[in-house]
Amino acid sequence: MHTLEIPSKELKIDYPESIEEMNPEQYLKFIELGLHYKTERISKAQLKTKLVYILCNFYHDKRKWKKMEQIDELVNFNSNIFHIGETLESLFDGDDLRMGSVLCLIPTINFKKRKYVGPGDALNELTFGQYMDAFSHYQNYGETKDIESLKRLFVTLYRPTDRRTKRPVEYNSDNVESEARAINKMDFRYLLAALWFFEASLYYYRHDAITIDGNEIDFSLLYNKSGPSGKSQGAGLKDVLFTVAESGVFGSINKARKAKFLDVMLRLHQLHRESEKLKAKK
């Protein structure tokens, strides 16, 4: 967190320095501003200024600035806002604004008297089957920009709760179409939050080493190499997971689909390391 101190007002304000530190309400507003920036409706400087108001919970009342001495105060105020905005440069990579995170920044969503529960940070609660289907919807949306694909991605990742038990309904690919229809008119920002979260998670598993129970696991070695079945993994994580299903590591395809996504990845990582050791002995 950044800390802003205003001694004359006896104020101390902590505000996020990354999207990971934003609360759900701040992140939704950030998504909206990010869309305006990406579509060139606002400049980078304007984006930073608007974000300062949101993240610091400032309110600009134009009616306040009436007298000349207040105009001087306004100029000083705007100068300070600009300098605070410069501390938000960490949200950018050059001029590219980072929109997603491996953290599930909006863990639950209420819509039409139902709660939708997210898949946990870095897809932690996702099953193998959910991942495969989510990846398919993600690819379709990337190719077509079809809103229906985006809605299918959302309901694959975010599960509606049962009205009676209040627990997330178990994922069933046969119900995706009806569940997608049920979120018609949902705030588009929620759909984009799911999209960018999934995208960030894909990048995370492909490029970053993660620590599990004190052990560092590098899943990147599963890419552009041969998996247990000997098939090329160059096409990415999707092919890796289909390879696991075909190899029968978790039993039948139905059982493999219900296995936890991370369990599948760990098992595949183990099999790959064992395969590499056998090759080294030859």
Task: Kindly describe this structure.
The protein is built from 10 helices and 9 strands. The protein has 282 residues and is mainly alpha-helical. The strands form 4 sheets. Strands 5-6-7 form a 3-stranded antiparallel sheet. A hairpin with a 2-residue loop joins strand 5 (108-111) and strand 6 (114-117). Helix 4 packs antiparallel against helix 5 (147-157). The longest helix has 21 residues, at 261-281. Residues 63-75 and 225-235 have low confidence and may be disordered.
Q: Percent of residues in beta strands?
A: 5-15%
Helix content: 40-55%
Q: Over all CA atoms, what is the radius of gyration?
A: 23 Å
Give the uncertain stretches in residue-range form: 63-75, 225-235
Biggest sheet strand order reads 5-6-7
Q: Please identify the structural class as seen in this structure.
A: mainly alpha
SSE string: EEHHHEEEEHHEHHEEHHH
Euclidean distance between termini CA atoms: 53 Å
The tally of strands reads: 9
* SS summary, helix count: 10
Average the pLDDT over all residues and give the rounded result: 82
What is the chains' assembly state?
Answer: single chain
Please summarize the sheet with the most strands: 3 strands, antiparallel
Number of domains: 3
The rough form would be described as globular
Observed structural traits:
single chain; mainly alpha; 10 helices; 49% helix; two-stranded antiparallel sheet; three-stranded antiparallel β-sheet; globular; 282 residues
